[in-house]
Amino acid sequence: MAQMTEVLLPDIGDFHDVEIIEILVKPGDRVAAEDPLITLESDKASMEIPAPQAGVVAEISVAVGNKINQGDLILTLQAELGEPTAQGDTAEVPVQAAEMLEDAPRGEPPTEPQPAPAAASELHEVRLPDIGDFHDVQVIELLANVGDRVEAEQSLLTLESDKATMEIPAPFAGVVKSLAIKLGDKLNEGDLIAVLETVAVAAAVDAGALAAPAAAAEAAVEVGAARGGAGEAPRPAGEKESLRPPVLARPTDAPRSKAHASPAVRRFARELGVDLHYVPGSGPKGRITKEDVQTFVKRALSEGAPAVPAAGGGALQLPGMPAVDFSKFGEVEERELGRIKKLSGAHLHRSWLNVPHVTQFDEADITELEDFRKAQKDAATRAEVKLTLMPFLMMAVCKALADYPQFNSSLSPDGEKLIMKKYTHIGVAVDTPNGLVVPVIRDVDQKGVFDLARDLGDMSAKARAGKLAPADMQGGCLSISSLGGIGGTQFAPIVNAPEVAILGVSRAEMKPKWDGKDFVPRLIMPFSLSYDHRVIDGAEGVRFTSYLGELLGDIRRLLL
User: Which CATH superfamily is domain 340-559 in?
Assistant: First the structure.
């Protein structure tokens, strides 16, 4: 008996309308769990979609060139349940055994079949899958121990990288026989995580028809090489993929363009340190082949082109800071810089060097706004939200972005065009025990004050727990950094590129303001706007801050 299973596109992150560039199976093919079915390609990466379970491909519902989204039907699998047949029929032979029988010599009659046990245990290695362009990711939590029984998709361990944590699930069910990692280890794609023992249904096969163990091992190596891509040899268990420094040269006439390549070619390029955006493709529709990468490297080495600055590093060739031995002046102590500060520091340095910053300082009278916020305390309690100034500030920024759309844009990599955004996602800086992170609140223009307060509370809790996913910190249009709860009068924040502006908010305080007759106490909030001067000039900057101040001074303007 067999049952039909629909295979749908799983969650692949913040991507939409991703194009199918390759279909790796055809109807009638037998696939194992985790075998690749199709290859997708976005603007920046290729990814293979694996089979969620073993079976036979019954029908394919997509074609090369289709654009699909999460939940779309890819194909239908006929799952083989391994039920015994009627008396007199032979038992169903597993795929691997059937392949061996087809290749076995046929001149001699088979010996009497030896019945196999009803079930046999098998050991399978679990290795770290592709988690994107991350290296040396630290293990911060082990979620399974030796002897534990785990189900498919049950989390085995937790990694922490790039301001976020991620859990790695088991690809199949089984019992944990051994763990190859411990807390604090740093892993890369392909590293051994654990060995799971699974129970497989065994079929009775002719003993004389089975290939020798050495031949089976050789066949497994060939299959693994075929699936891994041309020229890609299997690594011994536990051996880490070598990380090589990037090649800092390219042919001078190599243009930058979109990179269309399979995951195997991308891995080969990473091993050689080649930026595929500069490699011309000779395959169908400009796809890059392994030979194209090799030709590119030969040209770069033979031409001896000047060093290329790191991505986003611009053309600056700045001298490094001199090393100083501080111990000669007195006692010192070295402390490791936090992971988040290391990662965000590189991004901030890149933004500071590449974005010509201008900062406009202003202030807003939020007396009526604060009175209204306090008056909504009971309503906020009933809605089970904490109503702070930030949701109102986000709504005002959203209104200002709608009226000044150049602030809701990004500069194209060539600096020739503005990419205007038709959505409004706002990043909000959150102070956590591990450092500052900027989760993104999406679709601010479609939400009310209580909705924003709820989203902000949820994101802040995830940030402080270290549970933010990479997608939670991507796609922002403008960022807000508020230090009002700490103190200060004014500050100039660094633009969170590729955004073109960032708002800095300081602590509000009561000040005397002249109303035409007398000085009256008013609650004044200082704020600043840092912006990319290539996109926004000074006149536009001050118009934006003035308009934002008017919105905060009279929130009824948000209804206009």
Answer: Chloramphenicol acetyltransferase-like domain (3.30.559.10)
Q: What is the pLDDT of residues 480-512, one digit of tens each?
A: 999 988 888 999 999 999 999 999 999 999 999
Strands 519-532 and 357-365, sheet pairing: antiparallel
Residue 62 CA to residue 442 CA, distance in Å, equals: 31
**Which amino acid is present at 247?**
V
Nearest CA among 64, 36, 67 for reference residue 264: 36
The DSSP call for residue 471 is: G
Could you say which DSSP state residue 343 is in? H
Q: Which residues pair with 166 in a beta bridge?
A: 159
Measured between alpha carbons, how far is 333 from 335 in angstroms, rounded to an integer?
7
pLDDT at 288: 87
Closest by CA to 476, choosing from 421, 549, 531, is: 421
Angle at 163 between CA 157 and CA 164, to 5 degrees: 35
> What are residue 30's DSSP bridge partners?
56
Q: Dig out the tokens for 395 from the structure.
A: 């709504």
The burial of 388, by beta-carbon neighbours within 10 Å (0-12 exposed, 13-18 middle, 19 or more buried), is given as middle
Length of the chain: 560
CATH superfamily label, 244-308 = E3-binding domain (4.10.320.10)
**Cα distance between residue 456 and residue 65, in whole Å:** 39
Q: Catalytic positions, please?
A: 533
119-201+212-239 in CATH: which number? 2.40.50.100
Would you give the distance in Å from CA 354 to the centre of its chain?
24
Q: Using CA atoms, how far apart are residues 463 and 147, in angstroms rounded to an integer?
A: 33
Q: CA–CA separation, 525 vs 399, rounded Å? A: 19
Alpha-carbon span 392 to 404, nearest angstrom:
18
For residue 90 the two structure tokens come to 């032979």
pLDDT at residue 201, as a whole number: 43
Low-confidence ranges of the chain (pLDDT < 70): 1-2, 43-46, 80-120, 132-133, 161-165, 200-259, 271, 273, 285, 300-319
Distance from the Cα of residue 164 to its chain's centroid: 10
